[in-house]
């Protein structure tokens, strides 16, 4: 069952895996997947935007950045009771994890207090909790952990080199620092990236290498396909070859064998066959629900039908009950 987890990948090794013939890559990824996970099970998360729009950061892909005119209105932080009601619906719909997202560079302490209350409400429903609130101090990470937060989502998005052409208001090292605070506080990390932003194959390899060479592999690795939104700087980017997307998933699976790899944003624009290839390449997690944060997600009935046709079942799991092996790796 267990192969040794590596944290010392070299650039040329990762690139070699990424560029091998497609069938060889998928075969390798599926073989690794079967050694570490039940082959026909998938983890299902639901997203809720608890504070939408008006973000001071200038991430070139993001409809919530105040730097772009995308029609997304800036809202208030949702009250914990309303978050709880949305989480109840998500649980009813079969989600095992509830992820709360806020369009912040970093939370203010008063805002964090309210998010901690919301985490308590969601946790009380028996759901796994996840939040993505921007950069955190070590103290803020500890407060979230004490409130019962299981996962913190904080993506590195791309390679260190390409990052500067996508975001100018923070650095790659800022991102890595928050991830280390989250790990030090004892929370699980959800960290991945976006592809289809005009990056090169080398950038994708470097992003995956950075993730795999963290002192502990992120327990959850979301791979997002860029959702192009009118008004953002990246709208109009030439769409990438879908097989390159599948390759990215496969390499994530091979490099981080114990991690859940999430076929994340962008599913709405993918056909069933492409999604099935992603599952074959080792993706074993999705977002369900009608919306991601501000953009539409794949239709829930279509998802149910797709999983039925493929014989894939949602996993029921609580973070408190299952110890992910990579927590100690
Ligand atoms: N503000 C916080 C942050 O940046 O960490 C949390 C919310 S932010 C919207 C969460 C993640 O959503 C980003 O890191 C990015 O990877 C992803 N994302 C945002 N816009 C996207 C888009 N148009 N397509 C795909 N992924 C996107
Ligand atoms: C992640 O990697 N993808 C999700 C979640 N983590 C927070 C967000 C996707 C956002 C897509 C654009 C939108 O809906 O605003
Ligand atoms: Fe703000 Fe996060 Fe969007 Fe960047 S990705 S603009 S930090 S909400």
Biggest sheet character: 10 strands, parallel
Structural category: alpha/beta
Q: How many individual β-strands?
A: 10
The whole-number mean of residue pLDDT values reads 95
Order of helices and strands: HHEHEHEHEHHEEHEHEHEHE
Helical proportion, percent range:
25-40%
Note the beta-strand portion: 5-15%
The tally of helices reads 11
Rg, Å, rounded:
18 Å
Low-confidence stretches: 320-329
Q: Enumerate the distinct ligands.
A: S-adenosylmethionine, 6-(5-methyl-2-OXO-imidazolidin-4-yl)-hexanoic acid, iron/sulfur cluster
Q: What's the end-to-end separation, in Å?
A: 14 Å
Walk me through this protein's architecture.
This protein has eleven helices and ten strands. It has 329 residues and is of the alpha/beta class. Strands 1, 2, 3, 4, 5, 6, 7, 8, 9 and 10 form a ten-stranded parallel sheet that branches. Helix 1 (11-19) crosses helix 9 (242-255), helix 2 packs parallel to helix 9 and helix 5 packs across helix 7 (172-184). It is globular and about 50 Å long. The chain starts with 10 loop residues before the first helix and ends in a 15-residue tail after the last strand. The chain binds S-adenosylmethionine, 6-(5-methyl-2-OXO-imidazolidin-4-yl)-hexanoic acid and iron/sulfur cluster. 6-(5-methyl-2-OXO-imidazolidin-4-yl)-hexanoic acid binds at residues 47, 63, 101, 132, 153, 155, 192, 222, 224, 227, 264-265, 292-295. Iron/sulfur cluster is lined by residues 55, 57, 59, 62, 64-65, 103, 105, 134.
Q: What's a concise summary of this model?
A:
By secondary structure, the protein is α/β, with parallel strands linked by helices. It has helices at 11-19, 22-36, 80-92, 109-124, 138-147, 160-163, 172-184, 201-212, 242-255, 272-280, 300-310, and strands at residues 41-51, 97-102, 128-132, 151-153, 188-190, 193-195, 220-225, 260-263, 285-288, 313-314. 38% of the residues lie in helices and 14% in strands.
């Amino acid at each position: 069952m267990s192969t040794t987890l590596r944290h010392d990948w070299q650039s040329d090794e990762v690139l070699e895996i990424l560029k091998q013939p497609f069938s060889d890559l998928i075969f390798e990824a599926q073989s690794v997947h079967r050694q570490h996970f039940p082959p026909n099970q998938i983890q299902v998360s639901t997203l809720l935007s608890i504070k939408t729009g008006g973000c001071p950061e200038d991430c070139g892909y993001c409809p919530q950045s105040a730097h772009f005119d995308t029609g997304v209105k800036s809202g208030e932080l949702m009250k914990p009771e309303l978050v709880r009601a949305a989480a109840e619906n998500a649980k009813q719909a079969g989600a095992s994890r509830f992820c709360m997202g806020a369009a912040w560079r970093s939370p203010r302490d008063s805002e964090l207090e309210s998010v901690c209350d919301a985490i308590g409400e969601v946790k009380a429903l028996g759901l796994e909790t996840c939040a993505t609130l921007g950069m955190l101090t070590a103290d803020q990470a500890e407060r979230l952990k004490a409130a019962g937060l299981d996962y913190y989502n904080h993506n590195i998005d791309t390679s260190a080199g390409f990052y500067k052409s996508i975001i100018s208001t923070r650095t790659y090292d800022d991102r890595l620092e928050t991830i280390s605070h989250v790990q030090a506080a004892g929370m699980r990390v959800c960290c991945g990236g976006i592809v289809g932003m005009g990056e090169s194959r080398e950038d994708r390899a470097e992003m995956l290498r950075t993730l795999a060479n963290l002192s502990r592999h992120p327990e959850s690795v979301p791979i997002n396909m860029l959702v192009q939104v009118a008004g953002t700087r990246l709208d109009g980017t030439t769409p990438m070859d879908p097989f390159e997307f599948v390759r990215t998933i496969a390499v994530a699976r091979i490099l981080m064998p114990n991690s859940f790899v999430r076929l994340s944003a962008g599913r709405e624009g993918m056909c069933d066959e492409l999604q099935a290839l992603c599952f074959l390449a080792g993706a074993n997690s999705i977002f369900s629900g009608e919306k991601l944060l501000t953009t539409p997600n794949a239709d829930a009935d279509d998802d149910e039908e797709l999983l039925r046709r493929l014989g894939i079942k949602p996993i029921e799991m609580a973070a408190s009950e299952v110890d992910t092996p990579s927590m100690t790796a």
